[in-house]
Design a protein that fits this description.
Number of strands: 9
Keywords: Signal
CATH class of the largest domain: Mainly Beta
Structural class: alpha+beta
Order of helices and strands: HEEEHEHEEEEE
Radius of gyration: 25 Å
Shape: globular
Protein name: DUF4352 domain-containing protein
InterPro entries: Immunoprotect_excell_Ig-like
Low-confidence stretches: 1-50
Helix content: 10-25%
Amino acid sequence: MNPMTKSRTRGSVRLGALLVAVCSTGLLAACLATPPTTPTDPSIPVASDSAPPVFSNLDDPPSTPGPSTPPVPTDAPGTVDLGDTVTMHTSHGSTWEVTVTGVIDDDDMAVISYGNDIPEGERSVTIELRIENVGAIESHPYYDMMLGYQPENGPMFDQNSGPSYGDYSNDLGYVSSIAPGQTFTGHMSVYVPVNSPEGNAVISPDGRKTFYVWE
């Protein structure tokens, strides 16, 4: 056998083995380098501190943020029971006392009765809640917080992913703003995939950095 041919063959084998090793290592790194993450609602920009509302009737957000220090004691993020009240301070400087009183999953009949069409492949979930502005600035919860529903082991669906329905006084999407000392009692709704499991009401006051969960 020609020595040059033999040398090239060995070099090709070594090169092939090296390429296989590199590819295998690259595939392994690709599998291991990215930690598991919870899918996010694509309508929420990652860089934003909160979900930008899509409701045209809302008042403009405050021109200046509220105080960084809440005027009243707040509760640590975590999991609470339906009916429990928590006080949270948002990254925009507003402070809210929130009670989630119930979750209706699914609520298609009520949503349809007010003239909404349920998108194909989805169902509606209604979150019943009471929100009091206990802070120093007038604002709207949709500007300052992400309010939503998270099916078990699934992504969150926020205020931008659902319908408004009901009377103008009891749907959070119809309320223009809430002044200090004022209270809203009513509901908000979101759409979730029709085959997703039941889940929990979730509120984040700081752009998905911390969460309050009602089970």
